[in-house]
Amino acid sequence: MKQKLTFVHLFNFPLKKFLFSFCMVFISSGSLSAQRTEFLDSLHEATRSEDSHVRLNAYARLIQEYAMKGNMERALEFGDSVIRKTSTDETSLGYAKLLSNLGICYRIVGKFDSSAHYFYQSYMLAEQEGYRQSQALTMTNLSSLLSDFNQYDSSIALLKRAIPILTELQDSLGMANAYNNLGNKYSTLGDHAAALRNQFVALNIYEGLAAWRNYLVCLISLGNTYKNMNDLENSVVYYQQALSGDSLLTDEYLGNIYVNWAESLLKMQKPEEAIGKLNLCMQHWSESNCFLMYPLAHKAQAYLDLGVLDSTRYYAEKSMKEAQSCKERSVVSANQIVLGNYYAELGRKAKAQRLWEKAYSIADSVGRTDLKRDASRALYEYYKEGKDWEKSLVYLEKFKSASDSLLNKEQIQNTAKLETEFAFQQDKKEMEFAIASEQARADRAESERRNLFVLVLVIVVFLIVVVYLINRNRLNERRSKIILNEQNAQLEALNNAKEKMISLLSHDIRNPLFGLEGSLNMLLEGGLDEERFRQSVIQTRHRLRSVSEFLDNMLKWAKSQLSGINPQFRNVDASQLMKDTIELLHTSIAAKELKVENNLNEKVFVRADAEMIQTVIRNVLSNAVKYTPRGNKITLNLEEMPGEFLFSIEDEGIGLPDEDIFDLGATFDSGTEGEAGTGLGLSLSREFVETHQGKIWAEPHGNGTVVKFTLPRN
Q1: To 10 degrees, the CA torsion angle through 46, 51, 55, 60?
Q2: Are 588 and 625 spatial neighbours (Cβ–Cβ below 8 Å)?
Q3: For the chain, what percent of residues have pLDDT higher than 70?
Q4: What is the mean pLDDT of residues 542-564?
Q5: Which domain holds residue 444?
Q6: Has residue 621 been placed in a domain?
């Protein structure tokens, strides 16, 4: 009963964002030098200047220096004393910087109210006095503070306001920092396409400025974004690139690289390699570092994967203790699941169950769908093994809900990945084309210089080269346009498929589930007489079958939209397909006391994909069962026509609606006994029949309907 625990986005918590934004703010201002003592002495000397602007600038820089050394207590004490001694009428740029640096320090120690107070004062002063650069810097700091409270929309809006100001001031480093922070926030929100666009912009600026430390930090951000997209190979590539400049990185960043690299290796089913990276991470992080809970948790999972149970318990309990101390409840939940799996392996199922229950409760309260999925699956298996069917069903439904939510997110991520790859390839082609054009111009100029004395020959060669390049460029442009149009069409098809899937899932599966919930509540409340109890059970069975049929059709339709329809043609006995389908729907047919007359008794072989044609017959017959009143008849026929086979299914139902029943957007009333109808099955049937180069249609038949479809003989 051991469950595979995946740590997705474990680093999305306030302390991580404190550290990252703290480093980014101060990196932009400079780094430690060999003459640090002399530099600090000069700052202290400047604090005694009679010029308030010089004095306050020195105070602001000293607060920054104390903070960079990790002496937050001294930085805050020093900053507060300066504030008390400074006139409330002070309006210098140095005072605005001092307020902003104090806000950063208070944010790092977790005093958010004080942090917000000083950031706001700094921003108002900068806006009032027109200190544009200070205004943009404070916007960036306020953006990070808003992120700590998960107010990402407001945080992103502030960064987008800061970037034009930094662009106007030609502050390239500030622009790059803002773009990188913006990318990190989009990555946290799951908009990976936007995240990568902004991070690549930042990376190019850092490279142009030769700001290599910032460049390496941006590589880490790109690795984390690709990891969150489950593009694990690319994530590892960027972590390796970042380590190429390890001498420029602090221990915090080196530890961050190794722990994220290890997380990718765990997802790639490489626990032994992951343990090696986690050991390297722990060499860079001290025992007092709250981040330590993550490599400890990853180690526990790695050892569980390897079956080393003693080490599993040791690291899981140690990580949970760190997480409780740092108030990171999602990590507590993750470790409880690992410990539950550990005790389950030892046969101590009751203790495992208690840990999984606690883990699920915490995961639910912090909104961690992946942890809810892992805990609910373990609890479902536990209660199922103990034959507690009621609780087993409850956790099975919770597991399915969490899994469906994660599946939708994964599909959205895959679409974002395609969009990002498309944009990247487009930019790459434009750059390659520009380089080729530039090289062509250089070649022509060199050719002219070398052939200056042979003017006629130069003219001939020049004309040949020009004509060749023009033709080649036109050909390349035509090819690029063709490829671009194909990629746009593919992307549009994927987007349409995604929108259809989301629409169908959100609308057509919710109604039967609500009905199913109502029926189950009635059964749980009790007090029903025998007949009402029987009817409630029948309705519940109908709704379950409806959901099952819908999901089966949904999966086949989604596969046909995303992967295309690839029929496997062979000789198929059509009479056996009809008999198998009638047997498959026997329960629904018997429940309504319907008479099914199959007029095809002899074997008739058609050239078709057996699974697709049985899906067509099943969907049409199921539709007939839903809309045929109790006790009536349904008739199945197959006629051999010139060049084709004609299948028909007649019912004595309620007749045809006004709209095309095979259209995906068609709406359907409930069946004669409340059965749900979505129309997805008939739409899928049309696609399958047309794939076989056949036709499908419906027409009135007495009071009912007859659905016919054809298949070619060859």
Answers
A1: -130
A2: yes
A3: 75
A4: 61
A5: 402-508
A6: yes
- Please identify, among 149, 170, 191, the residue that sits at the C-terminal boundary of a domain: 170
- Residues for the chain: how many in total? 714
pLDDT of residue 483: 85
The amino acid occupying position 359 is A
Beta strands in 320-391 (DSSP E): none
Alpha helices in 564-655 (DSSP H): 574-584, 586-591, 610-626
Q: What are phi and psi of 570, to 5 degrees?
A: -160, 170
Domains identified in the chain, total number: 3
216, part of any domain: no
Q: Identify whether residues 673 and 570 lie together within a single domain.
A: yes
| Radius of gyration from C-alpha coordinates of the chain | 34
Tell me, yes or no, whether 42 and 131 share the same domain. Answer: yes
| Boundary-marking domain end, from 508, 530, 548 | 508
DSSP state of 628: S
Q: Name the token pair of 299.
A: 């180690």
pLDDT digits (tens, 9 = 90+) for 407-460: 776 666 566 556 656 655 665 566 556 556 767 777 777 877 777 777 888 888
Cα 305 to chain center, whole Å? 25
DSSP state string for 399-415: HHHHHHHHHHHHHHHHH
Q: Note whether residue 312 is domain-resident.
A: no
Q: Are 355 and 371 in contact (CB under 8 A)?
A: no
**Residue 213 contacts residue 249 (beta carbons within 8 Å):** yes
697 within 8 A of 663, measured Cβ to Cβ: no
Please indicate, yes or no, if residue 625 is contained in any of the structural domains. Answer: yes
Do 706 and 596 share a domain, yes or no?
Answer: yes
Given this model, what pLDDT does residue 231 score?
Answer: 87
